[in-house]
From TrEMBL:
GO terms for molecular function: diguanylate cyclase activity. This is GGDEF domain-containing protein. InterPro entries: Diguanylate_Cyclase (IPR050469), GAF (IPR003018), GAF-like_dom_sf (IPR029016), GGDEF_dom (IPR000160), Nucleotide_cyclase (IPR029787), Rev_trsase/Diguanyl_cyclase (IPR043128). Residues 230-359 form the GGDEF domain. GO terms for biological process: cell adhesion involved in single-species biofilm formation; negative regulation of bacterial-type flagellum-dependent cell motility. Pfam families: GAF, GGDEF. GO terms for cellular component: plasma membrane. The lineage of its organism: Bacteria, Bacillati, Actinomycetota, Actinomycetes, Micrococcales. It comes from Cellulomonas shaoxiangyii.
Length: 474
């Protein structure tokens, strides 16, 4: 009897034959192959390929075992066979597969045979054939013999390597089990290594609060982008309102705000392939783009910042510097120019907020703008009464040229408790305070002294507050 197709499988491994890849030599080749792997997917691919060659199998499956459930992650060789492909979409519970339960519990390999040594179908109850469920699975696949060995990582069963031979090939024996267990141990060592490397890279390269890259990675990305010769942009970002949030709502709220900023920049980065998003430190963030036109970066930042407003009335100021404008400069100079552009943008926005549009003094125009901006803000807010009230307060304050707002909540007969505050008190001049209430909710906004704050405006604010409260739950 011969092993079907074994020589053909070995021929594509660097010209080595199946015989070359068998036994100790094959395991040595596998060990060197695992050394080159840099992620778990690479380990699984190498393990599946080597399992076919080293064990002279028709096919191999690398499986992940978690919470007594086994799932196939890699099947080798790739196939169009419907029965084999169904394995990739199937999970197995240890409760339904006694052999899997034993592998997890005892960390021991198992073998099963659908045919005896003479090629005859094994009889029901033949204990030498292995687990009955696995024997039936072999018959469904039209295969002859199967072998599975556990992959033990950090003293727990991480997964298993499973191989199958056809009906015309020799059955798996004790030597095959030993080889499979060595191969599984090599795979386990490689998985542990790449997992540790990824953890170390994460600790070194990532900001622990936001999950973005850190300053070191941003500098490396900028150097690499400039070395590529393609257009490179640096976007420097600053969070307006972080100190106020920390002072008034506490540092937990400030941390949440920084994570919200990171989410905005991550979205912008996703829209610009090849971009690195990083937290420089404190409330400073940046994007490093490569091969993206400055106009595209500008449009993406503007649309993303507008689409995903920050909580508590905070905002992102940003500035962009590009080699397309500045020519061949160093990374440090590009960062500095982007930071200058960011500062200028912050000052422009502060001046714009401080200016009151003359038309807001007209009660009719003021009401029209309040209704338009307030309704849009409420409709775009996250579900819940508090997010809708925050959006309402921020929108109407900006429309009335004000500088700050507050959302409060009454509890019994006591004084209302502050839920959130927003705005930038330094951005506006003289202001007038307006207060509207509905039920337990109170909203205070500061309007420019030049804005209309008469009965029509107050009525519009009351109507918008009623819409914001509505039937939402907090």
């Amino acid at each position: 009897m011969t092993r079907r197709g074994t020589a053909a499988k070995g021929a594509h491994r660097g010209g080595l034959s199946a015989a070359d890849l068998g036994g100790v030599r094959g395991l040595a080749v596998a060990a060197h192959g695992f050394d080159a792997c840099r992620d778990v997917d690479g380990v699984l691919e190498a393990a599946a390929q080597m399992a076919v060659d080293v064990l002279g199998a028709d096919s191999a499956a690398l499986c992940r075992i978690s919470q007594d459930t086994c799932r196939v992650l890699r099947l080798e060789p790739p196939t169009d066979d419907a029965r084999s492909l169904s394995l990739l979409a199937t999970t197995y519970r240890a409760d339904d597969r006694p052999a899997l339960r034993g592998l997890i519990r005892d960390r021991a390999s198992w073998v099963a045979h659908a045919f005896d040594e003479r090629g005859r179908s094994v009889l029901p109850g033949d204990e030498s054939a292995g687990d009955r469920v696995e024997v039936e699975a072999l018959r469904e696949l039209g295969a002859g013999s199967a072998l599975s060995s556990p992959i033990v990582v950090n003293d727990s069963v991480w997964g298993q390597v499973s191989v199958v031979r056809g009906v015309e090939a020799p059955r798996f024996d004790a030597d095959d089990v030993a080889a499979a267990e060595v191969l599984a141990a090599l795979a386990a060592g490689a998985i542990a290594r790449v997992d540790l490397e990824q953890q170390v890279r994460h600790m070194i390269a990532d900001d622990p609060l936001t999950g973005l890259a850190n300053r070191r990675v941003a500098d490396q990305a900028a150097d690499a982008a400039l070395a590529s010769g393609r257009e490179t942009c640096i976007v420097m970002c600053d969070v307006d309102g972080l100190k106020r949030v920390n002072d008034e709502l506490g540092h937990d709220a400030g941390d949440d705000l920084l994570r919200a900023v990171a989410d905005v920049l991550r979205r912008a980065s996703d829209a610009l392939p090849g971009t690195t998003a990083a937290r420089i430190g404190g409330d400073e963030f940046c994007l490093v783009t490569v091969g993206q036109a400055r106009a595209e970066v500008t449009e993406t930042m503007a649309s993303t910042v507008a689409k995903f407003p920050l909580p508590h009335g905070a905002a992102i100021s940003y500035g962009i510097a590009s080699t397309a404008v500045m020519g061949a400069v160093g990374a440090r100079h590009l960062f500095r120019r982007a930071d200058q552009a960011q500062y200028q943008a912050k000052r422009r926005r502060q001046r714009a907020r401080a200016r009151t549009l003359p038309a807001v003094a007209d009660p009719t125009v003021a009401v029209e703008r309040l209704v338009a901006t307030g309704a849009v803000a409420i409709g775009a807010a996250q579900p819940g009464v508090v997010p809708r009230l925050l959006a309402f307060a921020g929108a109407v304050t900006e429309t009335l040229g004000g500088d700050e707002w507050a959302v409060l909540r009454r509890a019994g007969d006591g004084e209302p408790a502050t839920i959130a505050r927003g705005g930038s008190p330094a951005d506006a001049g003289r202001t007038t305070s307006l207060t509207v209430a509905r039920g337990e909710w109170v909203v205070e906004v500061a309007a420019s002294s030049a804005a209309s704050t008469g009965p029509q405006v107050r009525t519009a604010l009351s109507v918008l507050l009623a819409i914001a409260v509505g039937d939402a739950t907090h």
